[in-house]
Amino acid sequence: MKSVLAVLTVLAAIVAIWYAACVPMNIKGVLTDLERAGAQVVPEGAVARRDRGAFGLVAKNSFAISATWAQERPRLPAPHQVAVELWQTTVMKKITSKRSLVFHAWVTLSATLMGFAIGTGLGILLAVGIVHSRVMDMSVMPWAIVSQTIPIIALAPMIIVVLYSIGVQGILPKAIISAYLSFFPVVVGMVKGLRSPDAMQIDLLKTYNASPAQGFWKLRLPSSMPYLFASLKIGIASSLVGAIVAELPTGAVAGLGARLLAGSYYGQTIQIWSALFAAAILASVLVGLLGVIQRITLKRMGMA
Amino acid sequence: MTTTVIEASGLELTFQTSDGPVHALKDVNLQIEKGDFVSFIGPSGCGKTTFLRVMAALEQPTGGSITVNGMTPEEARKNRAYGYVFQAAGLYPWRTIAKNIKLPLEIMGYSRADQDARVEAVLKLVDLEGFGGKYPWQLSGGMQQRASIARALAFDADILLMDEPFGALDEIVRDHLNEQLLQLWARTEKTIGFVTHSIPEAVYLSTKIVVMSPRPGRITDVIESPLPKERPLEIRDTPEFIEIAHRVREGLRAGHSYDE
Questions:
Q1: Domain count, chain B
Q2: Where exactly are the transmembrane stretches of this chain (chain A) (predicted)?
């Protein structure tokens, strides 16, 4: 109960700061609109207000504060505006509609899940190779690290262009960019996990004359499970980011990334913010889902 | 008639480290007969664990020779000559006790039915009947170590090598397990190699006590125990017991300078 109160307090503080930030962010636009509508604002004329500080304008025109939370195209939309937009584009729209966020979220989610599956599979395979072969450890690991130092926003268009030129388009290029981001945490986590059995455990298997394959299936793989789940949680969030980023340079017409892009073209800040929130909610749901699977799996394995 | 199970002669093992060579074992000669209960005792660094690991082919000697059942340690391992018990139970948390005991059996390719029968048999041997379905965390430390002994016994090795198996347990549990180990030894007639740093434990359990000392790791005394095979815990208060314990202590003192 006490922790619920604490969580709500933090939430309330964030919302309060957000509302407060809307006032100076939006005041100039609001005053211009009000003046156009015939209201008396201080000082008069948009040119006179251009170089004035936002806080000074707020102080002189305090009657306009409530209007900063109700603009049609605010610089910073107020929380309730985003909430209303989210509500209207999810619950109030048919999910087949092009204006439904659920539709766009599904487009991004399908690429995310496909990329996550590819990235996880690739990550586990690489980790197995790295753990069992010194050559792979020395040759693959540095490249895996280098791959993550290149900004994905720079790489994504190239991947899409290259894939397009060999005839690959649709969901796959998005999934590959998403996999590009998600394989790395899996490699790092699985290498650590597969190496986690201590010397005594390895010696024990040696006394049974166990083959490397038996050691892998019976000891290394089960031991790595807690590490794998920690990696998967990071990996799925990266996958989602990858899928959204992949939608940006392609001029995609559907997906959360497309919503972000369209919103910024037409100055629809409320649409941008609701797409951002949709992405954040989607990511938390995915990570939460993995957390549940992790708890069940590790509990059944007696490791939680 | 006795048969020699383990025979070491002129055994040497030198580790090359950045601080120069470390002589873990030097000129070690020992014969272990079938059915012996041999304890290795000495201060840390005397090579007692290394010696046990050489018998199990977990370390390669750098000189001399050692045979287990007349074979090299590697061949003996392939013939499932020994079970090894480590200081920590090392049970897999994701397996039940029964499944943990099945681990070596699965690896060695025993049939499913045979596995079940063996698990039942060894659980009975270590007094853990009815605990097969439990997970390791549901058992006390002493019970976990008994389960790990059961695991080492499951594939019917003639030799049981134990590296301070009760070192991490408290003394009361330890006494109890020592008593049980003797009963188990009497019932199974295995040959047991047992590393310890407790003098009473070594004297209570062993038919043969090997006293070792460090720098270089070597054998300083081998004591054949005159105690009967049947040993209640009270035997530790008899003059014979105290006399052997005294000799072990003298051997340890002679081989080890505490001034260092």
A1: 2
A2: 103-131, 143-165, 227-250, 270-293
